[in-house]
Structure formats: C-alpha cells, structure tokens
Amino acid sequence: MYMTTIDNRPQLVSRLRGHIVEVPEEARAASGIVINGRRIKTLMFTTDIAIIRNCDADAVLAVYPFTPQQTISDAIIQSASIPVFCGVGGGTTQGTRTAMLAWNVEAQGAMAALLKDAVNPNLVQTVEGTPAIMHGGPFANIAHGCNSVRATRTALKLADITITEAGFGSDLGAEKFLDIKCPTAGIAPSCIVLVATVRALKYNGGVPKNKVAEPDLAALQKGIVNLAAHLNNMQKYGVPVVVAINRFPQDTQEELDFIAAYCREQGAEFALSEVFAKGAEGGVELAKKVVEAVEKPSSFRSIVAGCGSIKERLDTIAKTIYGAKEVLYTPAAQKALGDILALDPEMDQKPVCVAKTQYSLSDDPAKLGRPTDFAITVRDVRLSNGAGFVVALTGDIMTMPGLPKAPAAQAIDVDEKGDIWGLF
User: Fold this and answer.
1) Span 225-250, pLDDT tens digits
2) φ/ψ of residue 295, rounded to 5
3) Pairwise pLDDT comparison (37 vs 289), residue with the higher score
4) CB atoms within 10 A of CB 79
C-alpha cells in the first residue's frame, strides 16, 4: 500500500487485488445498454455469492433456480453490491427493494413453473425389477451427499423398509445425512449400514490406487484403523450399525476373513455383500442383518444438537467425526462468515455442510488411515440459503467435481436385438 497523486489529489493505492474475478478490459470499450438510467457494459453470469461479492462486473445475471422459494432471490440479491437480474422478474437494485420487486413481478411463480415437475421424485427400477427412487444426489464431498427429503418421504410410504444412500465415508455423506437432512426433515434412521471394502482399507494402509487389487494382508492390517474410525463415528448417533463387507472379485478369502474377525472383535454386526456379482441373491445375508437391526431399540441423536453457532457446529464435527484437534479459519473465511451473519444474525443457527476431501478423515488427502493431531483449515464460508445451510470449504477442495476423461456414455449402446450393453 502506498500514497500517490491522481488528478492533483492524494490517493492511497494498494497492490492487493480488489476483485477475485475480473472481466476482460476489452468489454469496457463497449457501448453497453442503459437500464433505469444506469449503463451496463458487463454481466457476470453466476449464482455463487463469493464471486458476486468479489467481481468487477457492472451487474449480475443470476437465473439458476434451485427451488421455487423466495430464498433464491434473498440469498443472491441481499449479498450483491451491484445490480442483479434474478430469475424471470429480477431487479436492478440490491437489498429488500429488489426482493420485493422480484416478488411483485411474480418471478417466484415463474420459477415454480420451471420446477413443477422437477421437484417430483423419479421412479426407476433395478435390472431385477426392484423399484428405486432417484431424486437429487449431489456429491458428498462438496455438498450434502444424499437425495431429496421428498424422495425419502415418498419411499417411506411405499415400503416397510427404505434404504437411502449417503455418499462417500461416514465423515461426509453420513454425517450430513444424520446432522442436516434428518433433523431438517424430522426423520430418524433405524439402522446404519457401513460399507467397507478390502481395496479401500488397503489404500488406507498405504497401497497405491493402481495396486489395491493385489493381495496384501499387511496393508489391510495397517489400514483397518480407518474402518475403526468410521465404525466409532456411526456408533455415536445411537443407532444400530451393520458393516457390509462389499466383496470384489480380486479379494482373497484371507483378507475377507480378517475384516470379519475384526468386526467380531469390535462386537459389530456384519455381513458379506456380493450384490455386484450375484445381484439380489448376493445381498440376502446383509438384508437379514439389516432386518434384525431395525427391530432393535435405538435413540438417534444428532451430534450437533444443542450447538449454538456455526463455529460451534464446525468445531463439534471436526473433533467428534474427523478426529481433529482444532479448527482454523483463514482471514477470508472469517470475513465471509462475518458477511453472512451481517445479512441476518439468525444465519448462525443454520446447519453446516463441510466441503472436504473424500480421501482422508482430515482435509489433507495424503493423511490416510486414522490421522491424529491435525487441524482442519476453513478457507471460505458460503451461504446456500435456498438449500438452508452454510458451506464451509476446507483444505484444497474444489467445488467443481472432477469428471472422467472418457465419459461412460461412450461405452453404452443398443445392439440389433434391442439389448443394452456397456452399462457395467
């Protein structure tokens, strides 16, 4: 930061970047358009509040409707310091006036029309004809990792037992399902199925990803501490836990027997799952264990119940589930959290969705097994007001998920007999 003179006036100038996203300089030479007396030359097309607050565009074009609710407009408009074109009605001012404008021109109704059918769950079936409901399914490392509340409630009305997936490990999808979705929806699980594989445990024992299919009992014995951590995590919620040992063709009997023996030592119910190779027949043993478990008494309780603030919830999750010793906040994260609470102090009561690597219980993918004596570093905090929670970005996690170089669609086709191949 230094002092200079511009137009014969003293100016304090900083070399720090004023914006994290800058529009091309060429756009400044455009004539632009005048809306309500204000000339607009550049538009930033985004609904990301962090970008909206830190770009040098003249206005924001935010037209991605998450839900047909007023909170879509509120979250974007109240956070912006530049004009916002939001939804169909939109507006060119910020704050409450724009929110009311969007309401008055019936932008919320237009959003509802777009999502009228999309909000309904999709009924599909497995290759054996078992009904399944598909709705939502965001990645658990960057989002909440489970399907919609509406899908779960629909399934609960249609079957005696509903199984719903929570992505990645217990530290991600399961924690968010149990601490965000269940309390929000007013539901409670009767049983938790913890899926374990020989391959994943050997990876946590130090085996490279390209060698996890090779027999290595020593690595499995070293990596079993990772299963211990996940098992301990799930037992903290007061619900019966069943370990599903998901068998792969390359797994040796010695390796499978080791995991089974470990589960017995821990007093954990377990079953071998071979549904990938054998279909429903390969899941009969696991199904019986689950049926027995749901009949047992349980007293489900979220681990963040009673936490009074965002930081307190983050601290509880990091120490209780990840095994961290503390939570650190970068200056940017502190400012972002302050900006959110400045919008409305009640935001401090919102659930916390942690964006974190799926490769480790910590925020460092290189820390395998069951790491100890580490800190979780929160580098940014973002408000997902429509979803109803605050997202804490940790470590180097990216919110844009990685995709394969060759999409699965390239291998799928239909032959002359009408049979589909390339799905598996």
Assistant:
1) 999 999 999 999 999 999 999 999 99
2) -85, -10
3) 289
4) 22
Map residue 119 onto helix, strand or coil: coil
Beta strands 38-40 and 43-45: pairing type? Answer: unpaired
| pLDDT tens-digit map of 83-122 | 887 654 333 433 334 334 445 445 556 666 666 777 888 8
> In which element (H, E) is residue 402 found?
none
Rounded CA-CA distance 165/288 in Å is: 18
Per DSSP (E only), the strands in 259-304 are 269-273
How many other CB atoms are there within 10 angstroms of residue 127's CB atom? 10
Instruction: Work out whether strand 43-45 and strand 59-62 pair parallel, antiparallel, or are unpaired.
Output: parallel
- Interatomic CA distance for residues 314 and 337, integer angstroms: 12
**In sequence order, which residues have a C-beta less than 8 Å from that of residue 379 and are 6 or more positions away?**
330, 332, 333, 393, 394, 395
Tokens standing for residue 311: 């930081």
pLDDT at position 227 is 96
- pLDDT tens across 178-236, in order? 999 999 999 999 999 999 999 999 999 999 999 999 999 999 999 999 999 999 999 99
Determine the 3-state secondary structure of 386 from DSSP. Answer: coil
Question: DSSP readout, 11-33?
Answer: EEE--S-S-SB---GGGGGS--E
Mean pLDDT in residue range 396-420? 79
What angle separates helix 96-104 from helix 70-77, to the nearest 10 degrees? 150
The answer to whether the beta carbons of residues 190 and 239 sit under 8 Å apart is yes
Domains along the sequence of the chain with CATH: 16-115 (no CATH), 122-294 (3.40.50.300), 310-394 (3.10.410.10)
Starting from the edge strand earliest in sequence, which strands make up the sheet with 389-394, in order?
326-329, 375-384, 389-394, 352-355
Residues 65 and 119: beta-carbon distance below 8 Å: no
Helices and strands per DSSP (H, E), number in the chain: 14, 18
Alpha carbon 367 to chain centroid, angstroms: 21
Give one DSSP letter per residue of 52-99, joined into a string: HHTB--SEEEE---SSSSHHHHHHHHTT-SS-EEETTT--SS-THHHH
pLDDT digit string (tens) for 339-377?
A: 889 888 888 999 999 999 999 999 999 999 999 999 999
Q: Are 109 and 121 in contact (CB under 8 A)?
A: no
User: pLDDT-derived band of residue 412, with 50, 70 and 90 as boundaries?
Assistant: confident
